[in-house]
């Protein structure tokens, strides 16, 4: 990974000058200076104007904008403009249009209306990329190349015939022989045996439940196809503009599981991320913290770039809430605390037309004479005080294991409970630990775990043998691990591990379940330690583990619900049910204390404490003043901190700790 190519902790945003007359451009640049903007993402949706007809280019207006930004000292993240094909391409070559699982063509009229496997689309896209790279690849303002935009945001998969042929090629490369595919897919079931790869189709709509491994491989193929498109543009950019790093904006969050970003990360010069608060969630900012920690995990711990977020409301939720005064700063610092070296937004000036005209921006419809723009100026000033934080790394005592393939497989149909969702346990445990003031890495199961005091394994339904072995080795070396329900159940082919649950972790944990006993929605059970649980129980036997809690009522009364096995200097805990929030918090408190995790003595409601290198971030979105032990200097105020930092409700502190 390369460093973020902007100065300090940069403020940035998308800029779409083509939506405005030239008379506005110079006003924009003056306001950018006032706000302290460090970089602009340019050209994301400009294809139809840069190439108004096939092979005819109009770069004059684009040259003018680039020069204006450069003269103002604003760096440029230059997009390749291939995110949305122009109407002349989709009308002249309708074969590039994507097709859904029911065989319906998705037409021009929004954006991303292209099939990831289409050679015709790729040919036209690369032709434009080549023209842009030759023209702007050595321009002094251009610090970063931005391939396409949010790849997979709308078209994560395509089921057309072109995609079907590409899928068959992918399967041939993966398995080598049709016999191996039949074995991996378990095609002896329901007479699904294939005689050749030519018989295989994408998992289009079927009369009933489709083959789960077929679906899993199609998900793997689909993320590889989009990644292949990214690589094609990146390789051309590296050839023609080798001095400028290349990235694209990922969408790492708890709502979009379709791309395996751990597969993408090695192909990127740096990790860039788009994230928007989702008001449909019970705790949007807890999800924001999880997404940020996961982005850092995808980046291998390196600093990353927040390419897009919202200054206030978005336009695509059922009810689009505006942020309250002060929330823009706190939300932005939450990203910085968790590793972002730049904070950027969509977009600079709120559109007056189009699908996103009610999406917030740095300059709202009300103009620069507005409370929101004044907050933007304040944010720019605050980020300007944090320049020394850039490049520092977050150091965490706790790891939460996270695997996109486990998410895909876990959320397929025909499982013991349709109420169980992979991301639920991940969010629940990440939130419980971070609310204690512990810093958490969210990492792939293949990550090096040796530096962590505690590892949480939430609902890792699909688990490889090497991952299971690495976890056992970690515990034998003195580590502490919590494994939750429905983990280790299947291998990489979604085949059940026989002999009893939790499969891959049975020996490590010293437990064995013969049967799952999921609960109905709203149904709860009580444990003999007073905890309440729901969703899930198991007919569990502790063969070589201490029973810490049993069910006190319900059909499994007396059956173990929480166990612990001592392994060398370490400990392996198993939780066979979903505790309610207060019981989850209590167990997180116990686990972190036992493991010696750095944390607050007691949680402060609404207060987030994150350690990034020698910098302590304290963000108070609670209702009471927070007092947190610290010694050093608050970078936001310049004040000396001798023993504790005091942060008012809605306030923040970033303390450079004394060495």
Tally the structural domains: 4
Biggest sheet features: 9 strands, parallel
Terminal CA distance: 27 Å
- Using only C-alpha atoms, the radius of gyration works out to 26 Å
What is the number of E strands? 28
CATH superfamily of the largest domain: Glycosidases
Proper CATH architecture of the largest domain: Alpha-Beta Barrel
Apparent shape: globular
> With helices defined by DSSP (H or I, 4 residues minimum), what is the helix count?
17
CATH topology type of the largest domain: TIM Barrel
Task: Write a compact overview of the structure shown.
This protein is of the alpha/beta class and 659 residues long. It has 17 helices and 28 strands. Helices cover 31% and strands 19% of the residues.
Word description of this protein:
With 659 residues, this protein is of the alpha/beta class. It has four domains: 146 residues, Glycosidases (TIM Barrel, Alpha-Beta Barrel); 215 residues, TIM Barrel; 198 residues, 3-Layer(aba) Sandwich (Rossmann fold); 44 residues, Sandwich (Immunoglobulin-like). The protein is 31% helix and 19% strand. It is built from 17 helices and 28 strands. The strands form six sheets. A nine-stranded parallel β-sheet has the order 5-4-3-2-1-9-8-7-6. A seven-stranded mixed β-sheet has the order 11-10-12-13-20-19-18, sandwiched between helices. The chain has a five-stranded antiparallel β-sheet with strand order 22-23-28-25-26, with helices on one face. α11 runs parallel beside α12 and α14 packs across α17. It starts with 9 loop residues before the first strand and ends with a strand.
């Amino acid at each position: 990974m390369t460093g973020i190519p902007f100065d300090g902790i940069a403020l940035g945003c998308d800029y779409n000058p083509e939506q405005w007359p030239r008379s506005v451009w110079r006003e924009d640049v003056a306001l950018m200076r006032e706000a302290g903007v460090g970089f602009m993402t340019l050209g994301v949706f400009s294809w139809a104007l840069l190439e108004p007809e096939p092979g005819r280019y109009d770069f004059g207006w684009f040259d003018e904008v680039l020069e204006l930004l450069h003269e103002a000292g604003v760096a440029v993240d230059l997009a390749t403009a291939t995110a949305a094909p122009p109407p002349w391409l989709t009308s002249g070559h309708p074969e590039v249009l994507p097709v859904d699982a029911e065989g319906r063509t998705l037409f021009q009229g929004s954006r991303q209306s292209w099939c990831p496997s289409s050679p015709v689309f790729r040919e036209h896209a690369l032709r434009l990329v080549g023209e842009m790279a030759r023209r702007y690849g050595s321009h002094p303002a251009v610090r970063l190349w931005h391939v396409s935009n949010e790849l997979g945001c709308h078209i994560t998969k395509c089921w057309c015939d072109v995609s079907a042929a590409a899928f068959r090629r992918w399967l041939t490369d993966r398995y080598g022989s049709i016999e191996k595919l039949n074995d991996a897919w378990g095609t002896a079931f329901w007479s699904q045996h294939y005689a050749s790869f030519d018989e295989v189709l994408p998992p289009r709509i079927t009369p009933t439940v489709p083959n789960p491994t077929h679906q899993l491989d199609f998900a793997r193929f689909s993320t590889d196809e989009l990644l292949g498109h990214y690589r094609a543009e990146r390789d051309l950019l590296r050839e023609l503009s080798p001095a400028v790093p290349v990235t694209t904006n990922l969408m790492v969050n708890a709502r979009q599981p379709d791309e395996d970003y751990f597969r993408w990360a090695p192909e990127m010069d740096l990790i860039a991320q788009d994230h928007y608060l989702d008001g449909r969630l019970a705790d949007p900012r807890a999800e924001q913290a999880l997404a940020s920690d996961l982005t850092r995990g995808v980046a291998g711990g390196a600093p990353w770039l927040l390419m897009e977020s919202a200054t206030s409301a978005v336009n695509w939720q059922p009810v689009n809430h505006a942020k309250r005064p002060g929330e823009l700063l706190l939300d932005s610092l939450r990203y910085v605390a968790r590793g972002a070296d730049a904070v950027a937004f969509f977009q600079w000036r709120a559109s007056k037309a189009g699908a996103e005209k009610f999406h917030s921006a740095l300059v709202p419809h009300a103009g620069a004479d507005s409370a929101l723009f004044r907050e933007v100026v304040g944010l720019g000033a605050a980020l300007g005080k944090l320049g020394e934080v850039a490049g520092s790394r977050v150091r965490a005592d706790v790891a939460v294991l996270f695997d996109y393939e486990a998410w895909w497989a876990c959320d397929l149909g025909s499982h013991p409970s349709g109420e169980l969702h992979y991301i639920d346990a991940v969010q629940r445990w990440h939130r419980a630990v971070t609310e204690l003031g512990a810093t958490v890495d969210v990492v792939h199961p293949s990550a090096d775990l040796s530096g962590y005091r505690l590892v949480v394994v939430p609902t890792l339904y699909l688990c490889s043998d090497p991952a299971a072995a690495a976890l056992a080795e970690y515990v034998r070396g003195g580590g502490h691990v919590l494994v939750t329900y429905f983990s280790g159940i299947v291998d990489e082919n979604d085949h059940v591990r026989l002999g009893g649950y939790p499969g891959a972790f049975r020996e490590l944990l010293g437990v064995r379940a013969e049967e799952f006993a999921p609960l109905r929605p709203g149904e709860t059970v009580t444990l003999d330690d007073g905890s309440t649980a729901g969703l899930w129980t198991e007919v569990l036997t502790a063969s070589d583990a201490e029973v810490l809690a049993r069910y006190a009522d319900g059909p499994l009364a007396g059956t173990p619900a929480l166990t612990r096995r001592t392994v060398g200097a370490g400990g392996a805990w198993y939780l066979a049910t979903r505790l309610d929030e207060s019981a989850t918090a209590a167990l997180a408190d116990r686990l972190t204390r036992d493991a010696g995790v750095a944390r607050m003595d007691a949680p402060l409601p609404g207060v987030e404490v994150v350690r990034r290198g020698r910098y302590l971030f304290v963000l108070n979105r609670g209702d009471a003043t927070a007092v947190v032990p610290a010694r050093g200097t608050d970078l936001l105020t310049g004040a000396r901190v001798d023993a504790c930092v005091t942060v008012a409700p809605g306030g923040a502190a970033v303390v450079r700790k004394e060495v």
